[in-house]
Amino acid sequence: MATISEPLGVLIFTPRRDVRRAIFDALDLDGDFVLLSARDAAQLETLMADAPPLHVIVVGENDSADIAQGLRILRASPAYASLPAVYVVDDMPGVAPEGGVDWLREGAIPTELAQRVRQATQGTTASAVPATPIRDYRFAFDAGAAWVIASTPDGCIVETGEAMERLCAGDGPVQGRTLAELFDLAHDATWPLPDGDAIACTLRRSDGVEITGEIDVRHRKDHGEHRIAVGFRDLRATDMAARALSLLAVLEGCPSDDEGMNEAAAMLADALELDVVAIWSALPESDAGPEILARIWNGPSPATWPEAGDLPLLRVCLGGESLSRLVEGEGAALSDPLIEALGLTSFALLPLLDERRSVLGAMLAGRRRSGGDGRVLAQALRAATARFASALELRRAREQGRVRGLIDTLTGLPNRLLFNDRLETTIREAERTGELFATLLVDLDRFKSINESLGHAVGDQVLNAVARRLRASVRASDTVARYAGDEFTMILRHIIKRDDVLRIAEKVVQTMEMPLALDDGSELQVTVSVGISFFPDDAAEGELLLRHADEAMYGAKSLGRNNYQIYAASVDASQQQNAELKSRLRHAVRNNELRVFYQPQVAAASEDIVGMEALVRWEHPELGMISPAFFIPLAEASGLIVPIGEWVLRTACAQAKTWEDRFGLKLRLGVNLSAVQLMQPNLAEVVATALRDTGFPAHLLELEVTESISVKTVPHLVETLDALHAMGCHIAIDDFGTGAASLDYLRRLPADRIKIDQSFVRNIGVDPDDEAIVRATIDMAHRLKRGVVAEGVEIEQHLQFLRANGCDELQGYLFCRPLPVISFEKLLGERERIIHDARAAVPA
Fold it and tell me: Which ranges constitute the DSSP H helices of 667-738?
């Protein structure tokens, strides 16, 4: 096949998401590729229907029937019958994949895949996906073996592997030499050798360097020609592995104080023959810069160490990225004052991570010389980072007093000190992002009588049970703490609507009503009173938030206990605050402080963009971003939502029309309508005028109506929505599941889509009841011939659950956050570039 000068069309075909991502990252980083992907045979067949220009397929082999079916479909198409294939297999030794004539292991994806793909298009190593299985002799050797292939009877080397090329780098070509010239056999043995394993020998480079090792020998028939395949193992690496293994066992015995850290670093340097080992601490909660805890230098003369703040590679490493130059020729050269001052030829700078993948510090290890054991050394160093990370975590625990002072010994929850620290951290983040969050104070009703009548042992059982139930009622990102005695506190983050918090509070109250099983087999019923305050509505300081939540909690007790209450400020203060906020909001509208952000909606099957939702944001010149949950209710109460809503509609339609003219993607635009807007008698006319003035097609506009809006509260609701539907607009029911809409109500509305509220989606994998609600909603919507969009999809578990249960479209942070115009346009531009380049890459 001729060399392709245009970008190469590469199809990535594997059901494993991690392998798809690794392949995509490797080829995307290398550049000059147009990348398409399919996870199964059905998606592959759909992709082929568009006849994309492809030059090679990369197959993540897993021996599944679906992979085999997909390849049969591919071969059946005349356009792709001779498409070259490169197989990616796991890192364990095994046999070649059936149907593959070129392969590499997963560990070699970053370093070798791009070269293999280019070779495949040039016909140098890979060929078309064959109809008959072929076994590859290279699978006789372990991953990374330094192999060569020689002809007989002269033993002339005709092919070499990547590992052998690296081993002899700078030593001239290996091909053309004979096996006798390259390998000096022990015990007077001579070539040719019969098949055998672990045969002692010495590899002789042309520059005189000798490497002790052993070889495996296999005789093969290759298209009728006799070949000898030889795999060489460098025993220097084996020795290094043995030393590293024994070292790691010894390191565990080193203490975690400064002296112990230095002792462990010195042992690491001695055992692995390193010239330098350095450990920095950079705890996330610390405002200070990186602190060096251990520094071992075995160089020929004293070296001057620059300040940590002047080391660019250290900053990158503390950002979570590993930097390794242990293997000769690995990666591009990196410039750093410390590396240059120490004269390091090979080095690794690795982050030290806790179990939550937070960066606690960094480790530098390096040599002034190169070596052939770089890959084994890299594994040993990564294992050593776990030891140092554990030491840093224990150090942090001791310094902060977590073991004795910040964790409640009875329940295992954070205590008052740790809760206050987390509350202040949450406030700082919310001030930066404009986020709304809630503080809850949960108090057990009549707990004193339980202690007095049943004893403190029973009281402790009750407290433990309450702690477990509270923890199970919220998400992992929320905080539950035992504040004092029978008082518990909670921080609920990432709140979109205040109603989400009320739903959780109601859930807490109902959960506590269930009888508690005591150790003696008896049951006890306990109730709670809950007080709620919101940031920044009720207070902007942690102490004041807790005080207001406490006032609300006593309000709940005064109403008979076993309920929850929201903090209510005094009438005068509330009126004064509202008047000031209304004035600021009018100022925002008049001075163009509002922004429209766009969040993509993707098809669940293909994960391709099919729509976008327009979301309004308030960018105050002094206060920064202000959460919509903060100002939208105020706008609705004051009537300002009408001009704001019309501005958002016009702005979003005009922007979407610009994108449609440029990209032609037919993306659906979702715009929210509030209850106040729906009460406008001329709403249909307002929408029609916006569409006419902007030129945006009505069939691409979807108007979202929240489920809580009912026919009773909004007169002529059905008639208004019918009029909008008749214009060609789509209608979606937003926040579905949080209101009280009946099935008859849903059937009467001209709804095209139902949007499952994110409060249910975020509890997938946490709350079986919410999972059941999501399943039922999808099934009901499909029976009514409505599409389904799930909001708040944040993790892979959400995606897999929704896809398995037939959800049509998805929206959430797993795919993309809401983006400003410039960023969203870049997203669409990148999608257009990929499609355009794929079409342009078709050979004439």
Answer: 675-678, 683-694, 717-726
Q: Do 272 and 265 meet the contact criterion of CB atoms below 8 Å apart?
A: no
User: Per-residue pLDDT tens for 217-226?
Assistant: 888 876 678 8
Q: Is the pTM of this model over 0.70?
A: no
Q: What is the pLDDT of residue 790?
A: 92
C-alpha closest to that of 358 among 451, 284, 260: 284
Q: Name 293's Cβ contacts closer than 8 Å, sequence gap at least 6.
A: 258, 261, 262, 279, 280, 281, 361
User: Is the alpha carbon torsion for 507, 510, 513, 517 positive or negative?
Assistant: negative
Count helices and strands in the chain by DSSP H and E runs:
27, 32
Residue 172's contacts (CB-CB under 8 Å, 6 or more residues apart) are 206
End-to-end CA distance of the chain: 14
Mean pLDDT of 310-315: 86
**Cβ–Cβ under 8 Å, residues 478 and 491:** yes
Distance of CA 373 to the CA centre of its chain: 33
CA 83 → CA 9, 41, 76, 112, 615, distances in Å? 11, 16, 11, 20, 45
- Alpha carbon distance 693, 531 (integer Å): 49
pLDDT in tens, 380-408: 788 788 878 878 877 776 665 544 557 78
Query: 């520059």: which residue's tokens?
Result: 207
Strand partners, 68: none
pLDDT of 600 higher than 90 = yes
**Residue among 477, 496, 475 at smallest CA distance from 767:** 475
Q: Which amino acid is at 735?
A: D
DSSP string, 408-439: -TTT-SB-HHHHHHHHHHHHHHHHHHT-EEEE
At position 461, the amino acid (one-letter code) is Q
